[in-house]
Design a protein that fits this description.
Distance between the termini of chain B: 48 Å
Helix content of chain B: 25-40%
Number of strands of chain B: 10
CATH architecture of one domain in chain B: 3-Layer(aba) Sandwich
Helix content of chain A: 55-70%
Structural class of chain A: mainly alpha
Largest sheet of chain B: 6 strands, mixed
Strand content of chain B: 15-25%
Order of helices and strands of chain B: EEEHEEHEHHHEHEEEHHHH
Radius of gyration of chain B: 20 Å
Oligomer: heterodimer
Order of helices and strands of chain A: HHHHHEEHHHHH
């Protein structure tokens, strides 16, 4: 179950999207998210869908791999949809039972929210699947450079890349601890949601202890390899834009223009 | 002077008990060590003998409470040389997961040279060469999570080699590996020592790993209690047992044969030697 979370997991493949400059991918993802909220009609969603589908096709990441990552947030998605469905006031009532009324507007909002959220998640996970965490943080470091007078930009980027590197390791560890506790009679699978969350508490202590131990080891290993912050550091893969990156920027602005036009026209 | 030298090295861990009272624990107690360039040195000891603490002194992760450590004539207590020391004395740790920084093999190997401020084209050259050296070129684009323990440890070694150290300190690099992984890692380390003339200091508690070393130090309770060539060390089976160390099986067999009156030499290290000695009996 825990292995299904794909956020922050790189899917190695040799595609045009993999080769793009990570800055392009970050900016495009941000623009894409903005476009999802700019759009408010079905043809706009169709455009967003086509754009995303084309990106997925080009990226060579199997669709099943992306959708697996969706499973873990299905619950969140469900809650959002239900809330929108129930609590949106409207004129035309579709169904009423007990104290709950579902309006046409509510239904529409729910569907929109579902579409927006799932596109948003698929879009962002496509970015993390096609970009190594190191590239991603490199790009963030570069994009945030103007802020370095007020923020420790290099340190933030390093922390993020390490966090991403350790997500799968800590997941595996959680799985192991869960199994070890299940073998001794712990129950994580029955009971309602509150009982289950309570049962998870004993997982946290060993997990935290092990995370701190790892952090300590890693810090020592980094120091042993001469890590001393961003000053005087060179890069193995410095970022520089190439022809394809400008093409991608072009495609991105084109897409945004289409979204805006659709919004104005319809 | 040798590449690594320690003189009367003492290290006290300070810990605080429940009443905030200071308590010291002497982890290393007067260790004198001298390593010549190009040597393959092994440091043996069971858990808590101070061997890992010693390793951390050699590249200035810890500084001595008393005494001095010199690495290539640089005093580890001198802060101005700290990055030179760490570049010259690379360190490989026990847990392969906790020392790999990047999520792609080649990026991890490049991490050390990046920190040293090496120019980009040179980093690529070094990464290619180091991965070649440990036989991991085929995996350069892989995620470290999908590698076996032995492969991860080889990546960690490549990461150190890419910094072009004069000396590599391996702190129980095989403790978490299966027998195959252990063999892979040792093979790589021996090749580095033989072909690149890198000084190797291997810290371990597996006796089988030290039979090929040039010189062996045995530690117990923070002190060096035995030192000598592997043959000299392994001829003293009873003493080793007193320090709770296991002797390689062949050596033990030879020792027991000798005890019961068979005429075999002391300190047999390999099966071949024992076979030879036994065949010579008639």
């Amino acid at each position: 179950m825990l292995k299904d979370i794909t956020i922050g997991q790189y899917y190695p493949a040799d595609s045009a999207i993999h080769k793009l400059d990570p800055r392009v991918k970050i900016i495009t993802t941000v623009i894409y998210i903005v476009s999802l909220f700019v759009t408010n009609d079905w043809i706009g969603y169709l455009a967003a869908f086509l754009f995303l589908a084309a990106c997925i096709k080009v990226s060579k990441v199997p669709l099943s791999f992306i959708l697996k990552g969706m499973k873990s947030i299905a619950f969140l998605l469900g809650i959002t949809v239900v809330f929108n469905l129930i609590f949106t006031p409207g004129e035309e009532v579709l169904v009423t039972f007990w104290k709950i009324t579902i309006t046409e507007k509510g239904l529409e909002m729910a569907v929109r929210m579902a579409i927006r959220l799932s596109f948003l998640i698929v879009g962002t996970s496509l970015m993390t699947l096609t970009t190594t965490p190191n590239q991603l943080t490199n790009a963030l470091e570069r994009l945030m450079k103007p802020l370095s007078f007020m923020l420790p930009v290099h340190e933030i980027a390093m922390m993020m890349s390490i966090a991403l590197r350790f997500i799968p390791i800590l997941m595996e560890e959680t799985d192991k601890i869960m199994k070890a506790q299940m073998a001794r009679g712990a129950d994580f699978e029955t009971g309602n949601i509150i009982v289950r969350i309570k049962n998870m508490v004993p997982l946290l202590v060993p997990l935290f202890i092990s995370a701190f131990r790892r952090a300590n080891d890693l810090a020592m290993a980094m120091e042993a390899r001469c890590y001393h912050g961003g000053a005087g550091r060179t890069q193995m893969k410095p970022l520089s834009y190439r022809g394809n990156d400008w093409v991608a920027y072009g495609v991105m602005w084109g897409y945004l223009a289409v979204c805006i036009v659709l919004r104005i026209v319809f | 002077m040798g590449i690594v030298k320690t003189a009367k090295l003492i290290y006290d861990y300070i810990r605080y008990d429940e009443n905030e009272k200071e308590e010291t624990f002497r982890a290393i107690d007067g260790v004198d060590l001298e390593v010549e360039p190009g040597q393959f040195i092994a440091v043996l000891g069971h858990n808590g003998s101070g061997k890992s603490t010693l390793a951390k002194h050699l590249n200035a992760l810890l500084v001595p409470s008393e005494g001095t450590v010199w690495l290539d004539n640089m005093d580890t207590r001198d802060d101005s040389h700290i990055w030179d020391i760490r570049q010259e004395a690379g360190m490989v740790f026990q847990n392969p997961d906790n020392q790999i920084v990047a999520s792609v093999v080649e990026e991890d190997v490049g991490f050390g040279p990046e920190n040293l401020g090496v120019e980009t084209p040179e980093i690529w050259k070094r990464v290619a060469k180091s991965l070649e050296g440990v036989g991991m070129t085929a995996y350069r684009k892989h995620s470290p999570n999908k590698l076996s323990g032995g492969q991860k440890q080889r990546v960690a070694i490549a990461g150190v080699v890419a910094m072009q150290p004069k000396c590599i300190i391996l702190d129980e690099p095989t403790a978490m590996l299966d027998p195959n992984g252990r063999k892979e890692v040792l093979k790589v380390v021996h090749e580095l020592n033989r072909e690149e003339k890198v000084t190797v200091i291997l810290i371990t508690h597996y006796m089988e790993e030290v039979t090929d070393a040039d010189y062996v130090y045995v530690m117990d309770h923070g002190k060096v209690v035995m030192k000598g060539t592997p043959r000299e060390i392994f001829s003293q089976v009873e003493t080793l047992k007193a320090y709770r160390l296991d002797v390689p099986q062949v050596t033990l067999l030879a020792h027991e044969l000798k005890e019961s009156g068979v005429d075999v030499p002391d300190g047999v290290l390999t099966t071949g030697e024992l076979v030879d000695a036994l065949c010579r009996l008639n």
